Amino acid sequence: MKLKYYGTAAAEGVPALYCSCDVCKYSTKAGGKNIRTRSQALIDDRLLIDMPPDTLYHFQHLGLPLNDIEHVLITHKHPDHLHPPTLNVRCKGFVMHEIPPINIYGSMPSIDLIFDELRKSGVLERGHWNLFELAPYKSIEINGYTVTPYKANHAFETYPYIYDISDGEKRMLYGHDTGTFLNETWEYIEKNKPHFNLVSLDCTMGIASSSGHHHMNVDNCIQAKMRLIELGCADSSTVFVLHHFSHNGNVSYDDLLPIAEKEGFLVSYDGMEIEF
Ligand SMILES: [Zn+2]
Ligand SMILES: [Zn+2]
Ligand SMILES: [Zn+2]
To answer: What local confidence, expressed as pLDDT, does residue 127 receive?
Structure first.
């Protein structure tokens, strides 16, 4: 499988809109991998995860093959992960030619938000959107992948999911946004013993302290990694990635990299591609 990260930040981006804290000042000056847009990832060029406001930037500047994508998983409805105006323009009038239907999958609040926004914008009849509600811990086949949503420890009113995705040979866990995994998620993992070849963990809180609710920091990610290995759900060949960052985590890409490498993690950056 191939995973490409197009955006790697939390809601406010890095450097953050309107902010001149040390991390934002450093990131602006250093540039390169320190500059992060809102999180979006693509599997094998055909299964997209999330639709942030920076989708346009990823399409125009980072080569996101948006015109070829027919399946989109939504983690939850926070606006850095689901930006309805980006979907509303996928219809006749905005697009100058015929386009195939797009299939969008997520929890009920995400699906409701998309439906409401399409209706309010008056475009519901002008495009072809198939919206699918996913149930937690129930696997579904999507375009050759087996996708299993796990409940996330995040804003519960959004019914957030992290995703276990397998192509039949390789398997990955996309863990954003979430704090330390819920007991019921660990119970599912312990019972079903998935073996992951790649695990992408939420590191929004970086090297700052974290209660482990809503988001994780580096220490929380190390604990999750150890537990997955202890359970036999990962091993020394598993690729572990820290991803989804905020200036609240008090660390730039450059400063996090040596800390992460010492603990056996890659650090995501906009445009990073991993084959596993
Ligand atoms: Zn987020
Ligand atoms: Zn800042
Ligand atoms: Zn969120």
So the answer is: 86
Token pair listed for 197: 């070849």
Decide: residue 255, CB within 10 A, 0-12 exposed, 13-18 middle, 19+ buried: middle
CA 161 to chain centre: 10
Q: How far is the CA of 253 from the centre of ligand 3 (A)?
A: 21
Query: How high is the mean pLDDT in each 10-residue block of the chain (276 residues)?
Result: 98 97 98 98 98 98 97 97 96 93 97 96 92 98 98 97 98 98 98 98 97 96 98 98 98 98 98 98
Do 34 and 254 meet the contact criterion of CB atoms below 8 Å apart?
Answer: yes
Domains of the chain (ranges; CATH) run 2-275 (3.60.15.10)
Q: What is the pTM of this model?
A: 0.97
DSSP secondary structure string, 31-67? -GGG-B-B-EEEETTTEEE-B-TTHHHHHHHS---GG
Helix axes 253-262, 218-230, angle to 10 degrees: 30
**268 contacts 241 by C-beta, under 8 angstroms:** yes
Distance 79 CA to ligand 3 centre (A): 8
CA–centroid distance, 22 to ligand 3, in Å, is 24
How many angstroms separate the alpha carbon of residue 128 from the centre of ligand 3?
27
Distance of CA 237 from the midpoint of ligand 2 (Å):
35
User: Which backbone phi and psi does 40 adopt, to 5 degrees?
Assistant: -160, 140
pLDDT at position 35:
98
24 CA to centre of ligand 2 in angstroms: 4
